[in-house]
Amino acid sequence: MSDTPATCGPAPGGPLASGSLPTGEPLVRVEDLRVEFPVRGGARNPDGSRPVVHAVDGVSFDLARGEVLALVGESGCGKTTIAKTMLRLIDPSGGRISYRGQDITRLRGKELRRLRARFQLVFQDPYESLDPRQTVYEIVSEPLIIHGRGKELAERTRLVFAALEGAGLHPAEEIAGRYPHHLSGGQRQRVAIAAAMVLEPELIVADEPVSMLDVSFRAEILSLMLDLRAQRQFTYLFITHDLSLAWVIADRIAVVYLGRIVEAGPADDVIQRPTHPYTRALVSVIPVPEPGAETDQIVLTGEAPSPSAIPPGCRFNPRCWLRRDMGDPAICATEDPQLLPTGPGRTVACHFPEGGTPR
Amino acid sequence: MALLEVRDLTIRYRTTAGEIRAVDAASLDVDAGEAVGLAGESGCGKTTLALAIPGLLPANAEVVSGSIRLDGRELIGLPESEMEKVRWREASVVFQGAMNALNPVRRVDEQIAEPIRIHEPGTSANEARARVAELLERVGIPAARGREYPHEFSGGMRQRVMIAMALACRPRLIIADEPVTALDVMVQAQILRLLKDLRAHLGLAMILISHDLSVIAETCDRAVVMYAGRTAESGDVRAIFRSPAHPYTQALIRAFPNVRRERTFVSGIPGYPPDLMSPLVGCPFVDRCTVGIERCRVETPALRRVGPAHEAACHLVGESAS
Amino acid sequence: MTAVTFGAGGRLGRVGASFRANWSLLWADRLGRAGLLLLAIVFFAALLGPILLPFDPTAVGHSAADLLQPPSATAWLGTDEMGRQVIWETIAGARTSLVVGLVATAISMVVGTFIGLTAGYSRGTMGEGLMRVTDFFLVIPTLPLTIVLAALLGQSLGIIILVIGLTSWPATARIVRSQVLSLRERQFIVRIQSLGATDLRTVGIHILPNVLPLVFANTVLVIAGSILAEATLAFLGLGDPANVSWGTMLHFAFQSGAAGRGAWWYIIPPGLGIVVTVLAFTLVGHSLDRILNPRLRNR
Fold this sequence. Notes:
By secondary structure, chain A is of the alpha/beta class. Chain A contains 12 helices and 12 strands. Chain C is mainly alpha-helical. Chain C has one domain (35-55, 80-298): Orthogonal Bundle (MetI-like fold), CATH 1.10.3720. Chain C starts with a helix and ends in a 7-residue tail after the last helix.
């Protein structure tokens, strides 16, 4: 479902080897994913039932081999839960996850562990994602030990050094002996990437990988990730609340609101020509380093409701400026819009995707 | 005369490992009602500089030289009793991450009333209550919600509470340290809009500290870009962003994506900031600069005029400042 | 060369290095140093006393005139109600008190850490269940338990050690558990789990080393408590009659009316011994706690 690849950054490089994937078959397919958490303690509903947090409320998307898909949304929208569930760190309450055509929704035990070698996670906080008591060597070699690769010390060391070099840490031998607290934030993030790379995964999920780094260090980490994608055919699921970042690095963007994807499409297209009123509002308030460049901002009032009390009908309708502009059409409060195609590679979940002009 | 004039301020931190040059001969002017952005990355000295104004530096910080004049009155060297009258009444602060520093066991209205009780002790309880209600409404929170506790508020609302607290004693200047950094983009827009409205209504001057140049571009009239404790560039915000003179500013602007323009990959700055414990030789940016010359290694550049309201500390630009 | 540095040998080397680093930090802290010096004195006396000064703590006096004598040239700390030299008893008592304190603490630490780890890491009923077990042991009163066991099995050092161990592990378990609970949610643990690490690996390699410094500092404080507990039980008459300890000395001192007769040399040495030893461990423990607190080093 990818459109023409990104026009910026390092090119994806060559025809992406699809391995044993038949052309067109996505690497990961998520269908109607649902994740619910019961709320413990606290008040019950009027009918006596326990309130349920619908963290993920029916999400479907494909992830093609070699693509960078960004899940964007505000905090609490469910984007991190989607990613964790896809990696089976959380058990889904409903729906289906397929990896290379195989259903992995209910996979357990040894099979699941073997799958873990294919999926890797890079976390947000470079200070927190590394065990402070382990050296860089131990951190990067641990995935190998867990999955039984590189049984000999010499072989393992070779793989570790290769991963460190691949993540831009030179000289590998010297850095391998250090502890995380001796490294800068950017270097630690590279260590995290090296630890993710060492098993030659297919999919890397990066949760805000640069948001805690100083701005001048972000580009090098992002370039590294894209270079690795080009050289090793990694696929990335990039989670961020920073729309401009997603715009720069992703091939496709999916906008998440209250546990549902409300809009998806090629990154540049979604940002330059957003159709869902939520996306349009978000894009209109993105700050840019250009004084006076602000277009009319659509500033929504209040904040998103709790995922335990999702509004009926379209979940965005209580805050939707378009609905107000259109005189409160009844359908918005009664019918939940489906995520439907509106153009090549574009989908939107809105009853009036083309309607209205911003205030 | 500007409301606030900071001149050649130099501040050092004394630590067991040595002395850190946190701020090095930095200057800053803020006119009444004006918003000045203090921009830079971690460790550049922007927070230290700003917190020196209300005298809120930690015990191991030492103001080595320079002057801070608020309304013509020198603040450095003021005894604590006098400083207390300045703090909150003339200049108040919204701290970084302050929304998480609200006392969880006290009601919100009591916490907003606290600066009034401390700094304006003659105020009657009724009057304080009335002012708190007015402040809450002014920051967009229904006054009735004042009776609630901080955990019942969302992050954005707590930040509004912090702003209300900062306005409690009707200061002329607000120092906001990364006020929107931890917030989502929509809440960020709400808070920035709030600050803009407040400034217009109350004639407030503001120093906005942020590592996010885009936020500064959007909200400030003037900006000061700091690097390694020194001022790299300062001036009218339009001038700085349209024609940045200092190589650091140029590189920093390129590190921020601009969705209103053509999509280009962000760029970074190779290398690391200098060690603030070693003495400064030459330009602090020289190791990372792409256009440095020999002179940059030996002579620390002074601020030079680049345009009508625009200065930069670089040997390669403009004429010497008069 | 590289292989050695990065294999198990390297890891041991690094453990040694961090141990030395902490040691010098402890020495640098004034209170820690004071505690260490006091400990050195106590251990020196306990270990080397009998060797340097051959003596028999049970050698009784030969005549009535030898009983309860104040300190003199022949009896540096005087004699007790049986004519035994108080100084030899004090030194012998040091050994007993230390042995009981250390062994009981070892039991407490091992059991407490193990249960604390399991309770903190397991979710659901296992974790809850273990906490209820911990609570049960937490509220067992030491004194009645000792009396019952002593009545059943006779009075001995073993009983004392057992009782102290059984009643002090819950405190360690609770501390360990709360530390594990907070560690469990940290990003590096979540990451290692997402890699497919087994629970055993996660707990053994990642959680335990991050918990051990806290345990270690806590242990030193538990030693102090155990010594005090032993002294208390012995003072109340539940001690091992065959082994002299400071607590038994105090017990016999009071029982024989030494206090009423003004025989201060019989009461002060054991009392001082207890105070100094407990103080020493406490100082070291608090100092270690400050040093080993996980907040440092990471930033």
